[in-house]
Amino acid sequence: MAVRDHGDPGDAPSAPPPLRPPTNDARPSAAEQARTIAAATNAATLASLTADGDPWASFVAYGLLGGMPVLCVSDLAEHGRNLAADPRASLSIVAATTDVDPLAGSRITLAGKVVRPSDADRDAARAAYLSAVPAARFYLDFSDFTLWLLRVERVRWVGGYGRMDSATGEQYASAEPDPVAPAAAGAVAHLNADHADALAAMARAFGGYPDADTAACTGVDRYGLDLRVHTPRGVAYTRVGFPERLASADQLRSATAELARSARHSS
């Protein structure tokens, strides 16, 4: 996973390093992160090119067909004319966050070229867009609206400050959204409210911070937990992975309970 690729501002607090390597720090790939973010919403900023070659940003809705963004664009709109003349385009999609700093959240850019769906794909593309944007039933079949598919060639994922990585279109196409994502916010809230001692034990046993005083969960996915750890040396962030990748959100409770049991037995 790529790390910070710009200069340290100089006044950021230093994070104490782990005292030993984490036991299992498996996490989703950039392609998996991108598929998860794309599947969690239906709105994006579309970047297209004008006839003069200038970038043009537009707010659009989208659906997904096997991960491929489906757009329904008016031919009368500036971005509709742009796509018809030059298929190069990209979508910027921002994950929902409650953080007051918008740059601390996750976002992706999907770049490639748009194509009109083939006869074989048109019904599926139409259904995918309607599923994501039900209100489109009022205009989807108008003669001046066109369906476009964005064939993704390049992906950039940013997970907040210092967390970023890229993926190819092929990697994006073969990845899948995290099945745990819809339940993640509730799981994080539950763990922090009711299992703070267990989180600290996980950080000490598996996260590489045996000197952890407390820990809070900042994220959860099918591979494991992200933890913010408080130690006498300062505040750090670590990863505690599940023994096996989860196949559904239904496995979250048993997987975290097993981690807690193992952490207590290791202490």
Automatic annotation (TrEMBL):
It comes from the Bacteria. Residues 1-31 are annotated as: Disordered. GO terms for cellular component: cytoplasm. Pfam families: CREG_beta-barrel, DUF2470. Transmembrane segments: none annotated. InterPro entries: CREG_beta-barrel, DUF2470, Haem_oxidase_HugZ-like_sf, Split_barrel_FMN-bd. Residues 185-258 form the DUF2470 domain. SUPFAM superfamilies: FMN-binding split barrel (SSF50475). This is Pyridoxamine 5'-phosphate oxidase.
